[in-house]
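User: ok so my PI wants both of these folded by tonight, can you help

Assistant: No problem, let's get them done. Here's the first:
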Amino acid sequence: MHWLKRWNSRSLASQFFLTGGIVSIGAMFLIGSLVTTMIEDAVIHNSGAATALYVDSVVAPLLPDMQTQTVLDEGSAQALDETLSQGALGQRLVSFKLWRRDGTILYSNEKELVGRTFPVSDKLSRAFAGSLEARYEIASDPESEEERKLGKPLMEIYNPVLQPWSGQAVAVLEFYETAQGLSDSLARARLQSWASVAALTAIFFLTLSALVFRGSQLIDRQRQNLKDKVGELTGLLAENQALQLRLRRSSQRAAALNESYLRKVGADLHDGPAQHIGYASLRLDSDMLVNDRTSSEARQKELSWIRSSLAEAMTEIRTICRGLILPQIENASCDEILKRVIEAHEGRTVTSVEQSIDDDGSTLSAAVKICIYRFVQEALNNAYRHGGGVKQSVTANIEDGVVRIEVSDQGVGFDPNDIRPTGLGLAGLRERVDSLGGELAINTGAGGTTVTMTLQSLEMEDVE
């Protein structure tokens, strides 16, 4: 769902602020309501108890023995009328009733209620059980019609009248008090309780928020670091897969080129030295050498032809071997390797090669040195065969293990599209450079050809 995605996209801190804020506000209202109710009940009960104690101390001596008398006599009623109509009680009490256990009103300052019986309420039952009942509310009992007409909350108190020697409730005093100042006390109690609960909730929530915020920041940083690491690993994995594919292709291409190169060497041996040696072998079996009648001069001439053919065969074999065998370059510097291959090319082709070599002495692996030698050798051979050897030059720069070599000429150039994928020259060089993670670039045109090799030297073990 859309809202769930939006929620999950938020940080843990914002999720906590929203959820924790709602829960904290709800808990604050719940706890505040409970605490406020408890405080209000305690204030009302304490106020009612104080008033009940005062009223009981004034009224109880005027009452007869309610255990033996079920009707309030006229003298007691007159004494209560006088007591309740003047003095402090007259100012504080709004109404006064004396209840019997069956719900009959034995006395009331509202004379029309005396002798009437009403249903026994829960408050009255608890009072007869010996419990003081106090309420601060608008009167709602059936017998409290006059109090209800006032339209304002009053302190309603049910105080049990206990027999001194038995402790048994023999009657219940019910009276309504104006409770001046009680509403202000309750308002202050509510305000203080709500303020206390709100302050404690805020402190608790802010403390937890600070901890969650720090934890969320730490998790976000770790998540971002993990995401970066995953991104790096994904990139490295893709690069590794690309390199593996590149390596497999290079290996397949190298195997094909190696087979083609062996066929070329076989063809060179067959078409060159083998022909001369075959010619010499045929001449050795000729009648001219085995016939006694052959003159010495003719025999020497025939042997001279044989020696000449064998000499040409040896020359061609040496030429082929020189192309196959590398000089000792493992311990040579790049500068020495380049000069050797350039001097060999100049001696073989009787041409000159301009050279510019900048070598900082970086340590190069044997594979890189071999690649440098073969690259310059093949590029110069191509410059001689296809470009006529016009203004050949070699420019090399080796710095911090990065090798960049250019071999150029100013011949007629060639079409790069004419390079056969199965060829042994530039195609083989491209595979060799590619297998080492380097790049080979060819720029050719009417003004000449430039072949550039760039690679990073790698420290790797030599394979024997």
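One down. Here's the second:
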Amino acid sequence: MVIGTIADQIIRTVEGVSDTVTAPFSEPVIRLGVTGLSRAGKTVFITSLIANLMDRGRMPQLAAAANGNIQTAYLQPQPNDTIPRFNYETHLARLTAPAPSWPDGTRQISELRLSLRVQPRGLIGGFSGPRTVHIDIIDYPGEWLLDLGLLDQTYTAWSAAALSRAAGRPGGDAYIALAQETDPNAKLDEPAAQNLATAFTAHLQAAREAGFSDCSPGRFLLPGDLAGSPVLTFAPLLPGKYPRGTLGREFERRFESYKRNIIRPFFRDHFARIDRQIVLIDVLGAIHAGPAALEDLRSAMARILGAFRPGKNAFLTRIFQGRRVEKILFAATKADHLHHSQHPQLTAITQALLREAKDRADFAGAKTAAMSIAALRTTVEETVDHRDGPLDVVRGRLLENGKQAAFYPGKLPSDPAHLLAPARDGSETWLDADYSIMNFAPAPLTLRPGDGPPHIRLDKAAQFLLGDRL
């Protein structure tokens, strides 16, 4: 068993070195990771990005598209045969149908390869023909990134943190009461174990629906084929020294199995190989949910971004230390829910929200940026008469009934501290404002030849993430 494990590690090391040695001398590959917590818009972002790279009429801020460097774009079979293909065609069909609808969200890892035929500019371009640049887009749930923080925790430490975090959240107090009634030193009873895991999962689901972000373990919310398996049948218990054969000892064993069999393979096989990353964030949704949800988002994003290994992806660094994330873009989504006059405030709030993690990445040598985007624009802007004067609003088709409605979410503060300070201080509500959100449906589209779906700053995001390699 030990020899087999060592052999497997050696084989993986040799394969990794071989990949990093040959890559610079073959067609270049950019591995772009796309993540974000639930409802941040990952599926729509990837679909719109691919569509707008294939039909580049709406991409003026992507320099290679504006100056004609990109001659053509085409989809190719993905390089990894064991990862599901991102279902681009189905998602695009739903967004561009006569009665468009939102595609299903990310529930597992998927991948797609988009290849660009690029003609270099300048003196070198005059002597060389077009080259092919492959963009491997890896889509994965942001909830899985929260799990990386569990690798350094014991079951006892995780239980204490999970119970503390549950207090006051939807379903949290009920689960804490159940945990207090449970004797962790009782003999293992599988129905009792399943009841605890079900109750804890219900609490995580309720907390997520209420706008909270830090709802780990992530596979409890997105179990896939693991639903009902022992590796997902554990929950936090009161601390103690759990004797052999007890409920506490078995939960401790399953927690370690979760780290060994779920978290580590994801990090090793997928996450550690990413060299460009966009993190999509529903900042407006967190603001609407209240100060506690905004502070929880700040804490969750700090944990998520702490899992990255940012730095310059130099050739020797790849060989001896593995890939490092060169660029990280923090993107506040659903910018189309705001009039453009409020986009600077949304960007500033996003920058302040992620200041701790951004500073860490910048110090490590990665290039980072924050911006407000809408991968698919669903609204138009208007100015309406109001009792206090003209009011800048957006108008779109409501998701629940399909009717057109004008919407004003509230005035975001110019100083992000007006939101972040009460969030950190534990305020229950915003003191001087009420922020609303509206669920808009995709608008019916009439696309001209050569145009991708309408968006806000998707081209600017692509320029930051990909422009230097095109």
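The CA atoms of residues 234 and 251 lie 5 Å apart. The chain has two domains: 2-140+280-378+446-469, 146-266. Good luck tonight!
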